[in-house]
Design a protein that fits this description.
This protein has five helices and nine strands, in the order ααββααββββαβββ. By secondary structure, it is of the alpha+beta class. Helix 2 packs across helix 3. The radius of gyration is 29 Å and the shape is elongated.
Length: 241
C-alpha cells in the first residue's frame, strides 16, 4: 500500500519540476543571454596596448629613458642609464620615443595572443603590428597599426589601427629637466659641484643620492601619474675615475 502511494507522489514531483523548468525558460529574455561580439577582440588589443604603455613608461622612467641601457648604474633590479660620464650621454628625446616603442612592441609580442578567443569560436587573422608614440606637453599616447580580421558566426569585422588611452605623464618635460641638469654639469670645471639654484626653478621634486663615485637623480612629478601613482624619472651621473 505504501509503495502504491509513493509512486504517484514521485511522479507528481517530477511533473512539477518539468513544469517549473519550462516556465523558467519561457521567462528568459534575449537580454538575459550574454551576446558575444567581434569588438571584444579589438578591446583586448587596446587593453594590451594600454597595459604595455603603463609598464614601459615605468621601465624607461626608472632607467634614465632607456628600455635596454648600454651603460648604466646597477641599483637592485633597475639599470639606471647614465646621463653624464665625462661627457653628455643622456638619451635624446627622439631616442627616448624609440626606446618606449621598442618596449611596447616587446610587450605586445609577448602578451598579444588570440588563442583563448579562438577556443571560444572566434576566427581571427592578424598581421604584423607597428607601434608609435606621441609625447605631448602633458601626456603620452600610443597607436598600434595592425591589420586584424575577426569573424564570429555571422559577424565579420576588420580593424586596421588601435589607439591607446592618453597617459598623464609629462615625459618630454621631465626629459628637458634632465637635459638641463646634464648641460649644467658639463659647463662646470667640477661637474659634481654644479650650481643647484636651478633646482629651485623647476616644478618637480628632485632628490640626489650618492652611489659610490656616482650620483643618482630622482625626479618626482606631482602632475604625472600612472593609475594615481606619482611618476618618477631617474638618471645617473658617473664621476668614477
Amino acid at each position: 500500500m505504501k509503495g502504491q502511494i509513493t509512486v504517484p507522489i514521485i511522479l507528481g514531483i517530477v511533473v512539477l519540476a518539468i513544469a517549473l523548468f519550462i516556465f523558467f525558460l519561457g521567462g528568459l529574455k534575449s537580454s538575459d543571454v550574454v551576446q558575444r561580439d567581434t569588438s571584444e577582440v579589438a578591446d583586448f588589443v587596446s587593453g594590451t596596448l594600454d597595459l604595455g604603455m603603463r609598464k614601459c613608461l615605468r621601465v624607461i622612467g626608472m632607467q634614465g629613458g632607456w628600455y635596454q641601457p648600454a651603460s648604466f648604474l646597477k641599483a637592485g633590479a633597475a639599470r639606471i642609464g647614465f646621463a653624464w660620464q665625462g661627457n653628455d650621454t643622456l638619451i635624446g628625446i627622439d631616442g627616448l620615443s624609440e626606446e618606449l616603442v621598442r618596449c611596447i612592441e616587446a610587450h605586445l609580442n609577448a602578451c598579444l595572443s588570440f588563442e583563448s578567443f579562438r577556443d571560444q569560436g572566434f576566427a581571427i587573422e592578424s598581421g604584423e603590428g607597428v607601434a608609435s608614440v606621441l609625447l605631448g606637453a602633458s601626456d603620452v599616447s600610443s597607436l598600434l597599426q595592425m591589420p586584424l580580421s575577426v569573424t564570429l558566426a555571422e559577424q565579420q569585422q576588420r580593424f586596421e589601427q588601435f589607439a591607446g588611452e592618453r597617459t598623464p605623464v609629462r615625459l618630454s618635460h621631465l626629459h628637458s629637466i634632465a637635459a638641463r641638469i646634464t648641460e649644467l654639469r658639463a659647463s662646470q670645471e667640477e661637474p659634481r659641484d654644479f650650481d643647484l639654484s636651478y633646482i629651485a626653478s623647476i616644478d618637480v621634486n628632485m632628490t640626489i643620492y650618492e652611489a659610490g663615485g656616482d650620483q643618482v637623480y630622482v625626479l618626482r612629478d606631482p602632475q604625472s601619474k600612472i593609475q594615481s601613482e606619482q611618476y618618477h624619472f631617474v638618471f645617473a651621473n658617473s664621476f668614477s675615475k
